[in-house]
Amino acid sequence: MTSLTKRALRGALVVCLAAALAAPARAAEPIVIGEINPLTGALALQGTTVHQGIVLAIEEQNARGGIAGRRLLLLSRDDEGRPERAIAAAEELAGRSQSVALIGGYVDSLVGPIAEVADRARVPYLATASLDERLTGRGNRYFFRISSLAGYVRPMTGFVESGLGARRVAVFYSPTPGATQLARRQREVFERAGVRVLVYEPLAAGLSDFTPLLARVRDQGADVLISNTFFADHLVLVRQMAQGGVKLRAFLGAFGMEFPDVIRSLGPAADGLYGTTAWQPGITAPGQEAESQAFVEAFAKRFGVQAAPLAMHGYAAARALFAALEAAARGGRPLTGPGLRDALAAADVMTPMGRVGFDERGDPVSYERVILQIQDGRHVVVWPKERAQAAAR
Known about the structure:
Radius of gyration: 25 Å
Distance between the termini: 98 Å
Number of domains: 2
CATH architecture of the largest domain: 3-Layer(aba) Sandwich
Order of helices and strands: HEHEHEHEEHEHEHEHEHEHHHEEEE
Shape: globular
Number of helices: 12
Helix content: 40-55%
Strand content: 15-25%
Structural class: alpha/beta
Number of strands: 14
CATH class of the largest domain: Alpha Beta
């Protein structure tokens, strides 16, 4: 090789090195999070609301710089309210898409199958709405959830027994695992307290004429009807009660009575109805008022509507997942698999919905709902007494 050739090669290397140093550093790969929710179908309202809370949390975290300088990438999948679609989405997100974690889920008939896929793939799954007690009793170390059955049982039975002083109740429930277990736990508490459960009936899927069941409630002389069903069923039940002249001291719905659409759909007929909530605008965990209001304002700006209660389930779950990712990054652990699973198990985050942390089974260490009543066209807390905004009418 001639000296001229050597000088040319050295010059070329210098030019290449200078170009490499001058080029911007390659952006770090994003952290992929997989979301599965019912965005179409019968549960689209609930699933979309959870989805919006997750989206807002992701966007806020990215605006703060992501996690350890890496942007978060949310891959959302629609399970259409069908278990087979939920399974397919979970397999795709945990496999080919290489999501570090899964988040979302509404009703346990969808959450359960996703949890099984996540367990096999060793991908943490944080469910946003789950009650089935069996799911945390199977030894699935990768399954976590922010809601629990006890969070419903305590306030609902306490309010009926102590707040209303009712001694004769009727209990309806949806055939989903969580709703069925909720009804069973309520009956057990009432029987121990000497409250008679006069009617105890599942509502068959697709049933739209509840008049025979409501007639039984009326004929048995129940004071209170507890409806462990969902938004659409509540509306039909309330309308058919009015049409059939069924008068009760109270109608208490477990799921969906906190939605603003209840008031919009029923109008003045909504006044006096009871529901439960863990959070909604104006109803927040003590000490979280400022953060709650900031969320309400950010949500309205982003989506053009007021945040519905389930939005906070998605938002709070995402916040817990971010805390786990940040802890894993600080500790130099991989942001996947067992490392992220252990970080999530140790997460402890305060949110407007309350504290989010998990016990050894993956259940929340603190999940508290309150009883609200619709008064003069708005939801107000009436139970427990220490959080009541007004007396029950």
